[in-house]
From TrEMBL:
This is glucose-6-phosphate 1-epimerase. One of its GO terms (cellular component) is cytoplasm. It catalyses: alpha-D-glucose 6-phosphate = beta-D-glucose 6-phosphate. GO terms for biological process: carbohydrate metabolic process. Substrate binds at residues 18, 36, 41. The keyword Signal applies.
Length: 262
């Protein structure tokens, strides 16, 4: 599975590491009062002891780890809502990665949050990549104060900086890497939006934890609940799932027709 860790990524808490799949919670992006993408990606998670920490399921085809995050005192100062966030990360023998997030309101009052799996995909060359499944959708352009546009009928390709929230997207989309002849298939549930980001050349040069040329080999395609927050009443739980698999591009046709079950 090719989820990329940027060469110049800095692993020094409390700053988030650039690469992998940071969890953006309880805020996606910067449209709120919290730090960009929320605090969850900067926290140390605990093993969830209600589940065996690491196990293989019956047919030995999948390994999983169960993690839990509860707010720290500092978190409650800037976001005063008690929650329990359980994350199951599973890897199948074939390399399919799945992340299942469950957020429970253990507060006395309702709360709202936005969310995203900020997924750094490794690609051969960004100009050889296209995304299928987002055609004709509306998107909010973060490069134009979140102005709303409608995507044209063609697959999305890249020739400059992109930072968009595609709203109400299908649950299965494909990222095709023409040069490597491989396709990432992204399946999601409970997450209405897809965020597409590549900083391109000029922005890359302003990012200290990102090489000047690294934008050519990465693309973020994030399953998210970004446009509209999710609201949980006391005792309620929300589930958001992501499954990421990699197939040879020749085997890709038909994937987009699947209903997106994880
Ligand atoms: O540098 P960060 O905080 O990891 O964010 C990277 C990018 O993440 C994307 O998801 C956002 O849409 C961009 O606006 C943002 O620049």
């Amino acid at each position: 599975m090719s989820v990329v860790l940027d060469v110049q990524a800095v692993f020094k808490p409390p700053k988030a590491m650039r690469g992998g799949i940071p969890i953006c919670f309880p805020q996606f992006g910067n449209s709120g009062t919290l730090e960009q993408h929320g605090f969850a990606r900067n926290r140390i998670w605990a093993l969830d002891e209600e589940h065996p920490p690491l196990y293989q399921n019956d047919n030995n085809s999948k390994s999983s780890v169960d993690l839990i995050l509860k707010p720290l005192e500092d978190d409650l100062k800037c976001w005063p809502h008690c929650f329990e966030y359980r994350l199951r990360v599973s890897l199948s023998k074939d390399g399919d990665l799945s992340l299942v997030s469950r957020v429970r309101n253990v507060n006395g009052k309702p709360f709202s949050f936005s969310f995203g799996y900020h997924t750094y995909l490794s690609v051969s060359d960004i100009s050889e990549v296209r995304i299928e499944g987002l055609e004709t959708l509306d998107y909010l352009d973060n490069l134009s104060q979140r102005e709303r546009f409608t995507e044209q009928g063609d697959a999305i390709t890249f020739e400059s900086e992109v930072d968009r929230v595609y709203v109400g997207s299908p649950n299965v989309i494909a990222v095709l890497d023409h040069e490597k002849k491989r396709t990432f298939v992204i399946r999601k549930e409970g997450l209405p939006d897809i965020v597409v980001w590549n900083p391109w050349e000029k922005k890359s040069k302003t990012m200290v934890d990102f090489g000047d040329e690294e934008y050519k080999q990465m693309l973020c395609v994030d399953a998210a609940a970004a446009e509209r927050p999710i609201t949980l009443k006391p005792g309620e739980e929300w589930t958001g799932k992501l499954e990421l698999s990699e197939v040879p591009s020749t085997n890709c046709s038909g994937h987009l027709d699947q209903p997106g079950i994880i």
